[in-house]
Structure formats: C-alpha cells, structure tokens
Amino acid sequence: MSRQKPSWMGPAIEYGPIAVFFGIYYGYDRIVEAYPIELLLETKSFIAATAALMVATIIGIGFSLFYDGKVPKVPLFTAIIVMIFGGLTVYFDDESFYKMKPTIVQAIFAIILLGGLFIFKRPLIKPLMEKSWKMTDEGWYILTIRFGLYFIVMAVLNEIVWRTQSDDFWVNFKVFGSMGLMVLFIFSQYPIIQKYHLPDEDPDNQIKN
C-alpha cells in the first residue's frame, strides 16, 4: 500500500545520507566540543560520518517502504553496499573500506551494463530510464555503452583520488566532484537522446485503437 509522498521526500531520501556524511565529517569537532564524552573523543570524524551515513540510509529505506511499499532496485543495491563497506569501516576503524565503495559500485554497474549488452544483447539501462527518455533500440545501445564506459572511468578516478589524496580532498570529491561529473555526463548525452528520440504517441490514435 502506497501513501501520498511529499514532493521533498524523494530528494531527501536520495541525497540526505550523503549530506549527513558531509555535515558530520566537517562539523565533528564542534560536536565533540559540545559533547566531550569518551566515545566521541575516541572516534575519528570519518568513522563517525560513516556511521551517521549508515543510519541515514536505513531511515531513507524505511521512508521508501512506508510511502511506496517497496524500495527501487538500484537504491536498495546501493544501500546494501553502504551497509557492507560502512560496517567494515566502522568495525575495523579503517577509512579505506568506505573509500573503496564507489570503486566497487561503479565497477559492478559497468560490468552489468556492458555484460548485458555484449553477452545477452540487451541494453539494461533501458528499463531504468525509459520512463524519462523514449528512444529507439539503437539509441539505448549507444547510451548503454557510454554509461558503461563512464562508470569504468569513475571507478578508476575514485581509486586514484582516495589512494593519493587527503581525506578532505576525497570527501569533497565524493560529495561535489562525482555528482558534478555525473550531471555533466548526462547533459553531454542529450544530443544522442534527441537524435534517437521516439515521437510521442498521438492520444487520438490511442483512443481509436
């Protein structure tokens, strides 16, 4: 059973956890100063931010279930990966586990998209985006290849950043850099989307049929 979901709830569920991570990471010193208890004093800002992200992710999944009665496959997959790598990060007190998460996620997406295209001959990105974009099969094939290559590039880029740069740099890249690159990539695909766009069906023809 689905319920009427406020318009702001969707973006809050999608971007809320990463906003919580960013806020806790950069505001942790103030939190410790205000509440100088032993647990907080012994916890690093990155670990605390990761734990907060996990809690926010669980809350987001709960809201999705409450309002929609289900959780979309991609957000559910991402949430599972967050729980696994976030849990390892907190348990072992080692930031590298969570920093590797984007690499693993991007690599899996690339394998699924490119593998589905070349092994099963199916553009698996079509079921995810056909509600937003109406294109021919040729357009979906081209877009699938491009998204697959994009995910490979992002996986490699994340590995370079987290292995060579500071925690602050990686956090900023994670929150702003990767999102910015995704927006730029999607906008750069609009010529393909327009070229292979299918015309909207005529409502009069639908009524006649």
From TrEMBL:
InterPro entries: YciB
Main location: membrane
UniProt key word Cell inner membrane: yes
Domain of life the protein comes from: Bacteria
Membrane topology: Multi-pass membrane protein
Transmembrane residue ranges: 12-28, 48-67, 74-92, 104-120, 140-157, 169-187
Subcellular location(s) per record: Cell inner membrane
Alphabetically ordered keywords of this record: Cell inner membrane, Cell membrane, Membrane, Transmembrane, Transmembrane helix
Signal peptide coordinates: none
Presence of the UniProt keyword rRNA processing in the record: no
Family to which the UniProt record says this protein belongs: Belongs to the YciB family.
Biological role: Plays a role in cell envelope biogenesis, maintenance of cell envelope integrity and membrane homeostasis.
Listed name of the protein: Inner membrane-spanning protein YciB
Lineage of producing organism: Bacteria, Pseudomonadati, Pseudomonadota, Alphaproteobacteria, Rhodospirillales
Gene behind this protein: yciB
